[in-house]
Amino acid sequence: MKNIVLPLLGVLACSAPALAQQAEKVDQAMVAKIKDEGLNRSKVMETAFYLTDVSGPRLANSPGLMRASEWAKKQLTDWGLAKANIESWGDFGRGWEIEKSYVAMTKPYYKAMSGTPKAWTPSTNGLIKKQVVLVKVSSEADLEKYKGQLRDKVIVTEVTSMPKLGLEPDARRYTDEELQKMAAPVVADASPRRPAMTDEQRDAMRARAALRSKLAPFFISEGAAAVLSNPRGGSVGTYFTSNGAPYAADAQPVLPELEMATEDQLRLIRLVEAGIPVEVELETKTKFQTQDLKGYNVVAEIPGTDRKLKNEIVMLGGHLDSWHAGTGATDNAAGCAVMMEAVRILEALNVKPRRTIRIALWSAEEEGLHGSKNYVKNHFADPATMQLKPEHEKLAAYFNLDNGAGKIRGIYAQGNEAVMPIFASWLQPLNELGATTVTARTTGGTDHLSFDAVGLPGFQFIQDPLDYGTRTHHTNMDTYERLPPEDLKQASVVVATFVYNAAMRDQKLPRKALPTAKAVGQR
Amino acid sequence: MKNIVLPLLGVLACSAPALAQQAEKVDQAMVAKIKDEGLNRSKVMETAFYLTDVSGPRLANSPGLMRASEWAKKQLTDWGLAKANIESWGDFGRGWEIEKSYVAMTKPYYKAMSGTPKAWTPSTNGLIKKQVVLVKVSSEADLEKYKGQLRDKVIVTEVTSMPKLGLEPDARRYTDEELQKMAAPVVADASPRRPAMTDEQRDAMRARAALRSKLAPFFISEGAAAVLSNPRGGSVGTYFTSNGAPYAADAQPVLPELEMATEDQLRLIRLVEAGIPVEVELETKTKFQTQDLKGYNVVAEIPGTDRKLKNEIVMLGGHLDSWHAGTGATDNAAGCAVMMEAVRILEALNVKPRRTIRIALWSAEEEGLHGSKNYVKNHFADPATMQLKPEHEKLAAYFNLDNGAGKIRGIYAQGNEAVMPIFASWLQPLNELGATTVTARTTGGTDHLSFDAVGLPGFQFIQDPLDYGTRTHHTNMDTYERLPPEDLKQASVVVATFVYNAAMRDQKLPRKALPTAKAVGQR
C-alpha cells in the first residue's frame, strides 16, 4: 500500500498510508518522548478526578464550574503555562445549583426514588407530600381534561422510551471495517454525519416544543405542586437530564421538576393507571446565582519562541461545563483532562514551540456552544458579518475533544481536503496506538464548529464510542468510573503530538474557502 | 437423530429426541389448548405487576410479603382454586421495612446519593449530618488504628469490586451449543453446577465472616453514627443488597447501615483518600415487626378427580419473598407469577386432573429456603431423621422456578436418570417454544433442594440467564422492567404442560434412592 500514489483530486478521503506519500516533516524523536511522558508518567486521571469528583457537576455558571475553572487555572499555571486566565466571553445568564434533592413514593408503600431536579428549576416549598396525577398530553386539546384536576398535586408525565433487555453491550469500539469505511473517499459535498431532519420531523419537533411551552403556565395556573418526568428514557437506573427552565435572568417561572429514573417513573405510572392511589414526598432546594451573569472560558498558553511565528497560535480545547446529574466525566471532563494533559506533557518535555500553543476550556457548550462561539466572535470573526479581526489570520489550527472518553482512532478533516495528507503523516507514528484514520467527513455537536463557522481550521478527533451514546451522555451515570485510564492516556499522546506538529510546521494548516456572512445558526 | 436409539445405561443425560424413544403418553390436544390460553390470553404480566409494583419489596416477614401473600391467596381463589391458605411453617423472626431512606453528600458540595438500608438495620437518630471516615479493615489488627477515630462519624467501607467498561452485554440467552453441552452424557456422580469451595477458600471465607462479626460491636463501642458500604460491587447505579443484621428477635444491635451505589461510594472514598473533608447527611427510618414471628407460605389446590389418584399431589412453586432494594421481580416474582399463571391456565381450561395439583409460594427462601424446608419437614419428612410421613409417598413431583425471568429451555433432572426420557417426551411438543433440553445435572440455590433432600422428585427448570447474574439478582434494579413478557408466557405454558402431564400420568414420577438421615445442610 505504501508505494501506491492515489490521485487526490476529486477525492476527499483516503487511507492514511496513501495520503502520507505527501512529504510532511514529523519529529519522530519528539513523538517518542511524548509517548513516553504521556503513557508512563500520566497525570490525566488525577486531572480528571479534580475536574469531576472534586469540582462536582459543572453546569454553566454554577459554583461547580467556577471551582473547576479556578482549579484548572491554578494547575495550568503550576505546570508552567503562561497567561492562565478565566476570561469572560460575554453575557450568559443565571447560575444554579442543587442544595437538596429528595423524592420518594409514600403510598401504597414507601420507596425512595432516584431523580434530579432539572436545571434552573425552583425549590419546593420545603418537604411536600402530595397525591400523584398522571398527565398525558399529546396536543393542546388534551390540556382541557386536566382543568381543575391538578391543584396541590404532583404531576407525573409519560415515559415514551421503554427500557430494553440488555442483549447488546453498552460500550463498543470502532472496528477496522468501520474505520476503513470512514476513511473511504466520499463525494465533495460530504453529507453531514447526522442527517438533517425531514420537513415533517421538523414540523413535529416544533409542534412538540410549542406544546411544551404551554405546559408550565398551565400547570402553574392550575396550582400543581411539582412535576416528575422522564422525557428521554434510559434504563437500569440511568436517566438523562437537562434544563427545566431557561437560564435567562428574566425567564418565566416554572414548577419544581425532577427528571426521574425510568424504573421509578414507570412504577408510579403503572400504579396510577391501575387505579391505585399513589402519594409521593419530595423536597428540592435549588439556589440561583444572579450576581454575575457573565460566562467565562479558561485559557492559558505555552508561548511561541520563533521570532516570525510566535504571534501565530495553535489552539486546543474542550468544554468544561456539563450537565448536573453526574459529574460530566465523559461530557466533557474527559476532553478537558486530555487537553490539559497534552499541554502538561509538552511542558514536562520543555518544548519550545515555534508558534504559541493556547488551551481553552469552554463554558456553556451544553446550552449552544456559547463559550467557544463568543470566543471566536471576540477574537477572530463574527459569522454573521464575516468581518475578520487581525487574529483571524494568526490561527494555525484548533483541535477539539468532546466525544466521550474513548481513545482517539483518527480525525475528522471536516471537509478540508488539503489538510488530509498532513494529518495522515502525523498519524503514522501513532498508528501503533490505534489512531489511524483521516476522514473527510464533517462532524458536529461541539466547539470546533465555532471555528469552522468563520473559516478557521477547527477539528474534532474520531474517538471510540464506548458507552457514550448508551449510558453516559447527559446522564446521571456520567461519573469518574466511566473514564478508562488507558484511553485517556492514549488520547493525550495523540493530541500532544498533533498540537506540537501544528506549532512546529513551517506553514499554518491549510484552510477551506471562507464562508459567506450568515446569521449564527443554532446548534 | 430421531431414529437413533441410544443406550441409556450408564448415561445420565441424552438429547431430547433420543430419550423420547421411550413411549410416554402426551395429550397433544391439551398441550395445544395450554399454548393457546397461555400465549394468547396470558395474565402473567398482570400477576407480576401485583406481586411487584403493587405489593412492593417482599422481605421475609415484611408487610410487603404479607400484602403479596394476601393478594395471591385471593387471586388463586378467584381463579377457582380450592383451599387457598396462608399456612404457617413455623418460627422465623422479625419482620422489617423501610419507612424513610435518604442519603446525600453535603461537603465538598451537595450530591444526593443512591443507597438502601441493609435489611434489619435500625433507624438513624433522625436526620444526621456527619463527617466521613474511610475504614479499611482486612484483619482484626487493623481495627486498632481506628480506635478513638470514629466517634460521631459516618464510616465508609471499601469497594472491592470495581465497575467495568460495558463491553459485554448485560443479558444473554443460552446458545444451542451450550444446551447441547448440558444435554450431553455425564458420569453418574455429576459434579454440582457450582463447584464446591477449596479448603483455602472456605478458610478465607470463615476468616472474613469472623472479622465481619467483630466490626459491628467495634463500631458501636467506638461511637460511630452509621455505616455506608458496598461489599459486592455493581455498576452504573446497580448495587446489591442483603441483610445487615440477623432477623432473630434476640439479635445483637448493629449500626444503621446503607448499601450504596458503587459510583457514590467510590466518589466518597476517592475524596477522602485525596485528603478532602467529606460530610454526608442521612436519615433512615426502619420499622421492625415483632408481633408475629412465624413464617408463612401461600398454598392452593386444583383438586384431583381420579378416585385412586386424587390423594396424590403434584406440586409447583417458587419463593414469594425477596430482597428489598428492588421489588424482587426476577427473584422471584417471575417464578411465582409463572406458577400462578400455570394453574390459572389449567383452571381456565377447566381441566380435571387425576391427581391434586398444589401450588406453593414459599417464604424466607433468601434466608435459607426456610419456607420450603419447613413445609417439607411438616408434610413429608425431616432430612435429619428421614422418618417419612404418610404424605411422602403421595407426592408425584415438585416443579420449581427461580432462575430469573428467562424463558424455559429445558429441565434439570437433578441426577434422576429414570425421569429423563419422561421429561424428554413432555418437552417434544414444547420444542418449538425453545424448551428442548433435559440435563442430568443437578442445580442448587433454591427450593427444589428441600424436596430433593428427602428423596422426593423436585426439579428446577433450565432458564435463559438474561441479565439475572449481571444486573438483577439481589439488586436495586430487580424491578418489573426486567420481566420480558414473552419469556414469562412461554415459561407458563411449559410449566402448565409439565404439571398437567404429571397429574395425568398413570404412575408418579420415578424417584432417586432415598437419602440417609443427615443434619440439615445450610444452603
How is the topology of this model organized?
The structure is a homodimer of 523-residue chains.
Chain A: H1 16-19, H2 28-40, H3 44-54, H4 63-78, E1 82-91, E2 95-107, E3 111-112, E4 115-117, E5 128-135, H5 140-143, E6 154-159, H6 176-183, H7 199-221, E7 226-230, E8 257-260, H8 262-273, E9 279-289, E10 294-302, E11 313-319, H9 329-348, E12 356-362, H10 370-379, E13 395-400, E14 408-412, H11 420-427, E15 437-439, H12 448-452, E16 458-463, H13 468-472, H14 485-504
Helix pairs in contact in A: 2-14, 3-9, 9-14
Can you offer a commentary on this structure?
Chains A, B: Homodimer. The monomeric form is inactive while the homodimer is active. Chains A, B: It holds the Pfam family Peptidase_M28. Chains A, B: It is found in: Endoplasmic reticulum; Golgi apparatus; Lysosome; Secreted. Chains A, B: Residues 1-20 form the signal peptide. The structure is a homodimer of 523-residue chains. Chain A has two domains: 25-92 and 293-413 and 443-504, Zn peptidases (Aminopeptidase); 95-166 and 194-289, Glucose Oxidase, domain 1 (3-Layer(bba) Sandwich), CATH 3.50.30. Helices cover 30% and strands 20% of the residues of chain A. Chain A is built from 14 helices and 16 strands. Chain A has helices at residues 16-19, 28-40, 44-54, 63-78, 140-143, 176-183, 199-221, 262-273, 329-348, 370-379, 420-427, 448-452, 468-472, 485-504; strands at residues 82-91, 95-107, 111-112, 115-117, 128-135, 154-159, 226-230, 257-260, 279-289, 294-302, 313-319, 356-362, 395-400, 408-412, 437-439, 458-463. In chain A, strands 1-10-12-11-13-16-14-15 form an eight-stranded mixed beta sheet, with helices on both faces. The interface between A and B is large, with 58 and 58 residues.
